[in-house]
Amino acid sequence: MTHPRHALELDHVTLALGGRTILRDASFAVEPGEFVGVLGPNGAGKTTLMRALLGLVPAQSGSIRVAGEPVARGNPAIGYMPQVRSALAGRRVRGRDFVATAADGHRWGLPHASAAIAADVDRVLELVGATALAKRPLSELSGGERQRLLLAQCLLGAPKLLLLDEPLISLDPNHQRGVVELVRRVQRELGITVLFSAHELNPLLNALDRVLYLGNGVAALGTVDEVITKPVLSRLYGSPIDVMRVNGRIFVMSGDVEVEKHDHGHEDEHDHDHGHGHDHAHGRGHARSHGGRRTHDV
Prior knowledge:
The chain is about 25% helix and about 25% strand. By secondary structure, the protein is of the alpha/beta class. It has a single domain (about 10-75, about 160-295), classed as P-loop containing nucleotide triphosphate hydrolases (Rossmann fold).
């Protein structure tokens, strides 16, 4: 009996961006139906990895496959949520029309959608609990409500793999929990695979099957207990790292490096974002002093 195809697989892959190596000879596989958190410091390559899976960043060496097939642009098996754009907040376009633009492949203002597209838009709005947002303009919606519509967009066409790039940026803890719970519910209901990148592990702890941690050109994939450890993180950062577990939360302590600064900005990859806007939020003060060391909420 043949084994089911991996949802995605990297085989000795090297990725580079702007002359800098992001991943070096990385090999790992994610299985169908897994919820995987993608973590790492700014510039570790979280966005670059997702763009490589979308066929937008070519591998310098090795091979990347999605559902057993080589990566290609416009793969209908992949739904992609980019990092939240500040431009969305000022849009007067209705929620329903905004979702439909992803299906139509146009920016804004398409006068008519086909019956099939309209039915699919109805389906995804209901799936993410956003039917009540259909007629409301984006400018009147909260950050969490806009995230529901962005999730609805990337569910159009029934993809098998969701790539969610920093969907928790600029959200308060309650909205972060709501987004994670929504994604997990949809993922379980549809049986799809999710890669969910984030600056923080703790909001994802109850949803994750495994975590993919990127750092120093290296990728480590495993359970939280396997990856978020002193030996693994020290190797990824190239510097001594300690891990503490306090009241159900996980913290790391670093000596001479900054770990998970919580500035909720973007990786230095944002220079390659092809003109899209960005939201830049200021840090939320999670770093603490411990005898000359820095403690950070992972």
